[in-house]
Amino acid sequence: MYAAGMTLKEENYSLFKQAFEKEVADTIPPELLIPEISIDAEISLTDIDTKLTNALKSSKQISTPFQIGSIDWVGESLIAAAGKDLYQSVNGGTSWKKVATLPAPIGIVAQSSQLIAVVVGGAIYASTNKGKSFKKYVYKSGLKFQS
């Protein structure tokens, strides 16, 4: 499953919607337009025990001093986008540090133990040094990204 985000001026919505729907109609095979439900796991009432209820109780709400647009979590490390700014928490969301400001609002954020990647407009920015610097990759035809 993939997700994306963007900012659009209200007066451009109708034109964007028409162009987007035309592109979808022209490029997506009809079999992909059939709704489907993806189920991670099924449980019965007998599966609900103390271990499960304790796991649910241990979930915590994360508070931030900014509005989260996109977030990714690996272990105790969270990376969150808020507009053009990228924030990191290394303690499960208790405190946050701004690690970067990109040239435009961030649509998607993802991380691994060695890489932070963000989508900004039609480009992907990647950092291999915990957000200290980012390299820009721009989409070129043929599904290739070039730096």
Written description of the protein model:
- By secondary structure, the protein is α+β, with helices and mostly antiparallel strands.
- The protein has one domain.
- It has two helices and nine strands; from the N terminus they run H-H-E-E-E-E-E-E-E-E-E.
- It has helices at 13-27, 50-57, and strands spanning 70-74, 77-82, 85-89, 97-101, 106-111, 116-120, 123-127, 135-140, 144-146.
- Strand 6 and strand 7 (123-127) form a beta hairpin.
- The two termini are 26 Å apart.
- The model has no long low-confidence stretch (mean pLDDT 79).
In short:
With 147 residues, the chain is of the alpha+beta class.
Topology:
Elements: H1 13-27, H2 50-57, E1 70-74, E2 77-82, E3 85-89, E4 97-101, E5 106-111, E6 116-120, E7 123-127, E8 135-140, E9 144-146
Helix content: 10-25%
Strand order of the largest sheet: 5-6-7-8-9
* Major sheet summary line: 5 strands, antiparallel
Radius of gyration equals 19 Å
H-E string:
HHEEEEEEEEE
Structural class by secondary-structure content: alpha+beta
Number of domains: 1
Task: Count every helix, treating DSSP H or I runs of 4 or more residues as helices.
Answer: 2
**Mean pLDDT level:** 79
The backbone outline, from C-alpha atoms, is globular
Strand content: 25-35%
Amino-to-carboxy terminus distance: 26 Å
**Beta-strand segment tally:** 9
Low-confidence stretches: none
